[in-house]
Hints:
The complex is a heterodimer. Chain A is 38% helix and 25% strand. Chain A is α/β, with parallel strands linked by helices. In chain A, the strands form two sheets. Chain A has a six-stranded mixed β-sheet, sandwiched between helices. In chain A, strands 2-1-4-5 form a four-stranded antiparallel β-sheet, with helices on one face. The longest helix of chain A is centred in the last third of the chain and has 16 residues, at 173-188. The radius of gyration of chain A is 18 Å and the shape is globular. Chain B is mostly helical. Chain B has two domains: 39-69, no CATH class; 86-308, MetI-like fold (Orthogonal Bundle), CATH 1.10.3720. Helices cover 74% and strands 0% of the residues of chain B. In chain B, α6 (101-131) crosses α9, α6 runs antiparallel to α12 (264-275) and α12 runs antiparallel to α13 (279-308). The chains are: A alpha/beta, B mainly alpha. Chain A binds chain B through residues 52, 54, 76-78, 80-81, 83-85, 87, 89, 91-95, 104-105, 108-110, 137, 139-140, 153-154, 157, and chain B through 208, 210-211, 213-221, 224, 228-229, 232-233, 236, 309-310, 312.
Amino acid sequence: xxxxxxxxxxxxxxxxxxxxxxxxxxxxxxxxxxxxxxxxxxxxxxxxxxxxxxxxxxxxxxxxxxxxxxxxxxxxxxxxxxxxxxxxxxxxxxxxxxxxxxxxxxxxxxxxxxxxxxxxxxxxxxxxxxxxxxxxxxxxxxxxxxxxxxxxxxxxxxxxxxxxxxxxxxxxxxxxxxxxxxxxxxxxxxxxxxxxxxxxxxxxxxxxxxxxxxxxxxxxxxxxxxxxxxxxxxxxxxxxxxxx
Amino acid sequence: xxxxxxxxxxxxxxxxxxxxxxxxxxxxxxxxxxxxxxxxxxxxxxxxxxxxxxxxxxxxxxxxxxxxxxxxxxxxxxxxxxxxxxxxxxxxxxxxxxxxxxxxxxxxxxxxxxxxxxxxxxxxxxxxxxxxxxxxxxxxxxxxxxxxxxxxxxxxxxxxxxxxxxxxxxxxxxxxxxxxxxxxxxxxxxxxxxxxxxxxxxxxxxxxxxxxxxxxxxxxxxxxxxxxxxxxxxxxxxxxxxxxxxxxxxxxxxxxxxxxxxxxxxxxxxxxxxxxxxxxxxxxxxxxxxxxxxxxxxxxxxxxxxxxxxxxxxx
Lengths: 244, 315
C-alpha cells in the first residue's frame, strides 16, 4: 500500500459542457506498468495530461507521493520534473540538436551541470544506439529514432513516473517495433509507467495492469490476462473484438 | 408532376448522346502525341537562355526608349542622368559649400543601423508584453496594445514631424537638444517597433503548441520556455518578414530629411537647389538600391540555408 506513488480518486475533467473524464480512480505503484486502452477520444490522453498538470481537473483528486496536486501551493514545474511525458508527435525541439534536446531540461529546469548532463545523455543515446546522431537535428532522424530520443529526453530528467501518450500512433508500422522494444526494456528495468496505447499485444506483454476507458469512463481494469482473455464488461469485449 | 417527369426524360436523352462512343475505334489506334510544340521548346534549356536574353533586351530597349522618344526626354536625361552632375553630387562641391551625398549616406546608414537594433529590442519587448498572461504585467499589456494601435495607425512621416518638432519645444534637458537625425531615429524606432512587435507576435503564435507542452513537461519555467524553445523558433519563422520591415525602415530614413537632417535625400535636394540639376536624386536612389538588394538576397539565402539544415542564426 505504501508504494503507491500516484493515485487518482474520482477524477472529473470537463471541456465546457463535455465531460471527458468521469469519475476515474486509478493507482500506480512503484515499478508498475499500467496500460490505458480504449478508442480514440475515450480520454486516455486527457488523463495523462491531467496527471502532468498540463490540464487542470474539475473534480476528484490526484495524489503524487502522498501530496495532493490540487493543493494551491503545489508548483506545477516541480511536479513535472518528477513526471516525464512523451507525446504522440514526439515534439522534439527542431532548432536544437539531439543532444541539446536531451540536455535542455536537466540544465535549465533542474540546474544541473551541463557537462555532467551531457555525459549522461551520451550514455542514454548509446543505449538506444543513436550516439552517432547526437549532433544531428531531429528532422534528419526517422520517426522511430525521434520518438526514442523523445523518450530519452524524458529519462534524462530522472523522472519517478513516465507517461506515454500513444507514442507509436504516429509512426510508420515498420518503426513501431524499435520504440516498443525500448519501452519493454524500460519496464524490465523497473521504470514506473502509465501508458496510453493502441498496441494490444504490447500491453498484454508488459503491463501489470490494464485499464479500459470508454467515453471518459473507466469501464474495467485488471491484469492483462483478465482483460484480454476474460473481460467482464460488454463494451470491453466489443472494443477488443474490434481491435484484434 | 408531369413537367418534372418530362424534364427528367429530356435530361436522360442528352446524357445518352454524350455517353455514346462516336468513333468505335479501339484505344490503341488513336495517335497520341507526347512531344511538346516547337513554340514551347523555345523556352527550354539553352533555347530558354536565348529567349530570356531577347526578352531582357526588349524590355531594356523600351525603358531606355522612354528617355529618348518623348518630347521631354532630352531634359530628363540632362537633369537626372547627367554623368558630370551624378558624380559632382556624390562627392560634393566644397568650394560652393555643397554637402556630398556620400556624407549624407553615412547619416542614413547609422540612423537605420541604430534604429534596427532598437526596433528589434522594443519589438521583442512589446510582443512579450502582449502575449504575457501574468496579472502583474496587465498594465504593460494595455500599454503595449495601445502603443501598437497608435504607431501602426499614424503615418511614419507624421511621427517623424511630431517627434522632430515636438520634443525640442519641450525644452526638457537633453531630450530637447538632440540633432534632427537623433529625433529621426526615435521616430523610426517608435513607428517600426509597432510593426515588428506584431511580426514577432505572429511568429510566436506560429510555434506549435506541442513545443510549449514539451517544454513545460520538462519543468521549464515560462521565461525559460520562451527563451530556449519558443523565441528561437519564432525568430527563425519571421526572418523574411522581419528583414522586409528592415528594408522598409532603411528607406524611410529618407523621411528624416523633412527635419533638416542632411542625409542623402536632403543633400540631393540641396545640390539640386544650388546647381539646378536633379541628378543627385538618382544618386540617392541608387544608393538605396545598393543597400537593399543585397539585404533581400541575404534574406533568401538565410531562409534557404536554414531550411536545408537547422542552423542557429540569432539567439
